[in-house]
Amino acid sequence: MNIFNIKHTFTKFTIGCCLLSAAFAQEALKSTEEEYYDFLSIQGLAERPTLNYRTLSDSEWKLTGEAEDGNHVWADNNLGTRFILWQAANPADNWFVRGIDQSITMKVYGPEWFNSFNTAAPYGQNDGALWQGRGYNTSLTGGIRFEAYGFEATFKPQLSFSQNMAFDIMPSAYDSEYGYFWGYSKNVGVDAPQRFGNKPFFTYDWGDTEIRWSWHTFTVGFGTQSIWLGPAYLNPILHSNNAATYPKFDIGLRKQRIVIPKLGWYLGDIEFRLWTGYLSESEYFDNDSSNDHNMIHGLSFAYSPSFLPGLTLFANRTCLVKWDWANLKYIWPALANTHIGEQGAGEDQKMSFGFSWLFPQVGFEIYAELGIDDFTPSNTLGFIRYPFDTMVYTLGFEKSFAINDSKKIYALINFESNFLEKNTHRSGSNYTYYFHHQITQGYTNRGQWLAAGIGTGGNSQYCSISVIYPQGQTSLFFHRYNVDNDYAYWGWNHLDQYRYKTNFIIGIKQQYYLLSSLSINGSFVYDMIINPLYDGTVNADEYLQHNISLSIGIKYTL
After folding, report:
1. Residue 371 contacts residue 393 (beta carbons within 8 Å)
2. Can you give the pLDDT at residue 425?
3. What is the spatial distance between Cα 196 and Cα 447, in angstroms, rounded to a whole number?
4. In whole angstroms, how far apart are CA 251 and each of 35, 295, 328?
5. For position 345, what pLDDT does the model report?
6. Alpha-carbon distance 387 to 389, whole Å?
7. Which residue of 34, 242, 351, 381 has the lowest C-beta tally within 10 Å?
8. Please, where are the H alpha helices in 23-145?
9. CA separation for the pair 478, 489 (Å, rounded)
10. How far apart are CA 332 and CA 299, in angstroms?
11. From the CB of residue 378, how many other CB atoms can be counted at a distance below 10 Å?
C-alpha cells in the first residue's frame, strides 16, 4: 500500500471513530452536559441511560432521531468526545465477547474551574466536597477515563478551597464549637457543622474516580463516584452529590431490556444496584476517635413497563450501621435486618418509592418520590396504623416549549417541591428525618448531607425558567425553603410562627459558549435569610441577612 493510500485509510478511520463516539456521551452528575441531554430526552431526542441509579459511569447518553444526525440546539458545541484509540480489525465472535466492546477508548473531562463568593452566609449545594462558606470558594475538577474490553478506569478528582470567613452561628450541641445546634443529646445527633473551623482550608477529594468491569448490563466496581437516586432535580431524598465522596463497592444490572425467550415479548426495562460504602466523620463533631466511621448499605431497583411508555417505577433502601466488617450482613435486608439485629450494630434504615413519567410527544415529565424512616407506632402493624409518622416527599415536573424552531430557541420550566419535616403531632420528640440516635453523625459524610442539600427537617419550593439557544442557556430561578423546622417544633414543643428560619432566593444563571470547546458560566443570586438564628420574639421578622452569591466558571472540553 502506498503512502497516499495509508493516509487516506487512516483519515477515513479517524473520521469514522469521531462520528461513532459523538453518538454517545458519559457525563458527570448535574454537569451542564448531563442537564442538556436530559432536556433533549424530554423532547424525545436522547435516550436516558438509567432508570433510577445514576453515576458518571452509568450515564452513557445516546442521541436519537434527528438529534443523532446532528439536528439539535447545541449541535455545534463540543459536549465531549469519546476517542477510539484502538479497534480490533477482526473482532472475535462468541457468546462471551459479544457482551463487551472490543476496543480501547478514552474520554477527557474538563478541566473545569469554578469560583464563588458569598457576602454574608454560606450558599451552595450539590457541589461534592466543596463547602461554599462565607467569602471566596473555588474548585478545580478534571480527569480522564479509559475503557477496554469491559474494563473501565476513571480518574476525576476535585481540589477545592474555602476562605471560610466568620459569620454568626448558634451555640453548638457538640464537642466542637462549630458543630450543629441540636440533637438527641451531647454528641448524639448529626455531624453537620455550621462552619468548618475558623480558618481557610483546602480539600482534596477523589471525586468520580473508580475502576469497573461490565459485561452486557452486568457491572461491578469499586471507587468513589457520587450516586444520584431518583428523579429529583434539586433535593433527592436518599442520595445526591451534595457531600464529599466515599469509597464504595457496588454490583448490579444497568438498564436491561426484558424479553421472554422464544416468544419475543418485550416486558420493559429493569435496573438493579447493590452497594456498600465507608462514611467518615468531620473534624467538627466529637472527640471520640472510636466512632469516626460508619458503613452505608444501599439497594436500588427500578422497572419501566413496556405497556406504559415513559413510566418508570422505583424503590430505594439505604441502611447506616456502625463500621464493622461483621455488619456487612445487613447489606441484604431479607437475610439480616438491623431493626432486630445485634445490639451495638447501630441502625438507620430509610426507604423511598416513586415514579417518573415522561411524555416526549408534548415535552413534559412529572415525578414523585415518597420516603419513610424505619420508625412506626408499633412493631407489627405500624405501617397500617399510621404510615405518615416519618413520611417525607418530593413532587416535581419539567416542561419544554419551542420559542423559535427555525432558530433553535427553546424554553424549559422546572418545578420541584420537597417536604422533609416530621409530623407536627410528634413535636415533643427530638426526631428528624436525617437524625438517628444510634448513628451519632446522622445521614452525613465528612460533615455534609448525603442527600437533600437543604438538610433535615425543612421544606423547599424551587422554580426555574430557562431559555436554551445555540450559544448557551439563560435561567431565572426562584427558591424558598425552611432549613430545619424540626428544630423549632422540638425546642418549643408547639408551632411558633416566629421560630422559622427561611431563605428566599432570586437568581439568574448563564452558560455561554465562547468557542465550540470553551464555555463560561456564571450566576448572580440574592438570598434573603429571615431569622437566621431562630429567634422566637415578635421582632424576629425584622432580623434579616442579605446574602449576595456570585459565581463564575470556565470549562474546556476536548
Report:
1. yes
2. 57
3. 8
4. 26, 17, 14
5. 81
6. 6
7. 381
8. 32-42, 65-68
9. 26
10. 8
11. 10
Range from 199-203, 356-360, 438-442 carrying the lowest mean pLDDT: 438-442
Instruction: Pick the range with the lowest mean pLDDT from 20-24, 117-121, 451-455, 512-516.
Output: 20-24
Q: Are strands 459-469 and 409-419 parallel, antiparallel or unpaired?
A: antiparallel
Do residues 186 and 171 make contact, with C-beta atoms less than 8 angstroms apart?
Answer: no
Determine the number of helices (DSSP H) and then strands (DSSP E) in the chain: 5, 28
- The DSSP letter of residue 453 is T
Count the helix, strand and coil residues of the chain and give each as a percent rounded to the nearest 5.
15, 45, 45
Question: What's the whole-number mean pLDDT along residues 71-91?
Answer: 92
Of 258, 257, 253, residue with least CA distance to 220: 253
The C-alpha cell of 221 is what?
A: 466496581
Cell numbers standing for residue 229: 437516586
Give residue 166's pLDDT band: very low, low, confident or very high (50, 70, 90): very high
Taking only the tens place, the pLDDT of each residue in 385-435 is 677 778 899 999 999 999 999 999 999 999 999 999 986 655 456 678 998
Q: Is the bond preceding 111 in cis, omega lying within 30 degrees of 0?
A: yes
d(CA 534, CA 5): 76
φ and ψ at 235, to 5 degrees?
-130, 80
Q: What is the end-to-end Cα distance of the chain in Å, rounded? A: 33
Q: Are 179 and 197 in contact (CB under 8 A)?
A: no
Does residue 213 register a pLDDT over 80?
yes
Q: What is the pLDDT of residues 13-38, one digit of tens each?
A: 444 444 444 456 788 999 999 999 99
Helix (H, G, I), strand (E, B) or coil at 528: strand
The residue to which cell 407489627 is assigned: 380
* 3-state DSSP of 488-526: HHHHHCCCCCCCCCEEEEEEEEEEEEEECCEEEEEEEEE
